């Protein structure tokens, strides 16, 4: 499904990934929306009391968002790792392959996973948990930074119009009704996509087989021009793709700008011609 598939089969692979992503997004959207609404509610209550300390209030609530995103990343890993592991292990037990040095060796494909190091699962979860700890913190900081800016704009505009503290509170709650649903959807989609593409990549790395990776874009009227251009670009698994002037390790890479990663639907497929006969 993801190893050594043809260009014609890439669309089927991508749709399988998108379906899994969508199922993961559904409950996550609601959780993110609830947290955003709660932040607005607390800020509105404070505003009614004449307290407009946005920074302290949002920072005091960051634990809710951090927990939600960290737990969601783990859910994504729990969905995608077993899928990739099963695809790799399918009909591979005790098959011989040729490594990158041209030497014949046995594929380490017992249920435990890769040769040594505690198996595929242990290698995957060690790397994925480290990524989760780092990225979840960064994402919460980014999300809260945007929330602070949005609330600050409401307060500044209301004050400029001569509004009272009660009016400020009303406008904060009105903003929640106006933007939090779509914002939660965008956050959920972007984070599930980034986590799933990364989970797939770490799963492939846990096989200890060297693959090349191919950027695979969803080509339709919604596709970004830069993503349509990069479609089919091929790199070593540890090398960067060149995407619109940015160096990205994979679709959804947090190194990328918002224009390159928000609502992205691109995925990666993996190729190793030496193992072609085992992935058919």
Quick structural summary:
With 280 residues, this protein is mainly alpha-helical.
Please tell me about this protein's structure.
Helix 1 packs antiparallel against helix 3, helix 3 runs parallel beside helix 5 and helix 4 packs antiparallel against helix 5. About 9% of the residues have low confidence. The strands form three sheets. This protein has a three-stranded antiparallel β-sheet, sandwiched between helices. The protein has a two-stranded antiparallel ribbon with strand order 1-2. It has a two-stranded antiparallel sheet with strand order 5-6. The chain is mostly helical. The protein is built from seven helices and seven strands.
């Amino acid at each position: 499904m993801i190893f050594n598939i043809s260009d014609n089969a890439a669309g089927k692979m991508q749709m399988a990934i998108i379906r899994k992503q969508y199922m993961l997004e559904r409950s996550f959207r609601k959780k993110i929306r609830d947290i955003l609404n709660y932040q607005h509610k607390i800020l509105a209550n404070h505003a009614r009391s004449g307290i407009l300390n946005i920074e302290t209030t949002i920072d005091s609530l960051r634990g809710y968002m951090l927990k939600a995103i960290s737990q969601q990343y783990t859910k994504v890993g729990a969905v995608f790792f077993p899928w990739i592991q099963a695809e790799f292990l399918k009909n591979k037990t005790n098959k011989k392959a040729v490594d990158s040095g041209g030497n014949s060796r046995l594929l380490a494909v017992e249920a435990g996973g890769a040769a040594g190091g505690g198996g595929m699962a242990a290698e995957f979860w060690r790397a994925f948990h480290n990524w989760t700890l780092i990225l979840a913190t960064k994402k919460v900081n980014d999300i809260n930074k945007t929330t602070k800016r949005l609330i600050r704009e409401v307060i500044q505009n209301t004050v400029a119009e001569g509004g009272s503290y009660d009016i400020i509170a009303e406008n904060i709650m009105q903003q929640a009704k106006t933007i939090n649903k779509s914002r939660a959807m965008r956050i959920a989609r972007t984070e599930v996509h980034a986590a799933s593409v990364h989970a797939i990549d770490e799963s492939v790395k846990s096989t200890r087989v060297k693959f090349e990776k191919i950027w695979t874009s969803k080509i339709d009227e919604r596709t970004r021009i830069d993503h349509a251009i990069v479609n089919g670009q091929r790199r070593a698994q540890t090398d960067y793709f060149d995407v619109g002037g940015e160096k990205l390790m994979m679709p959804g890479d947090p190194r990328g700008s918002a224009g390159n990663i928000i609502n992205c639907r691109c995925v990666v497929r993996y190729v190793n011609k030496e193992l072609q006969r085992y992935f058919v």
